[in-house]
Amino acid sequence: MFHHPKEVCMSYFQHFRLSLYFSYILWKGSIFAFIHAFFPDTYITSTSELSKQLQDTLKNAGCKD
Prior knowledge:
By secondary structure, the protein is mainly alpha-helical. The protein has three helices and no strands.
């Protein structure tokens, strides 16, 4: 029934946990970006840091090339 987790070399629960982690990180980033829109001197580098964090996490998750 769940093909995608196997395609990325993860169990259902590993994939579930990783997806919830991404949801949390993106939610947090969204809040920071919203605050930054009104107060530009706050959270200046948060979006670029978030992007790097997501890239690093994706690179180290699942199948290893």
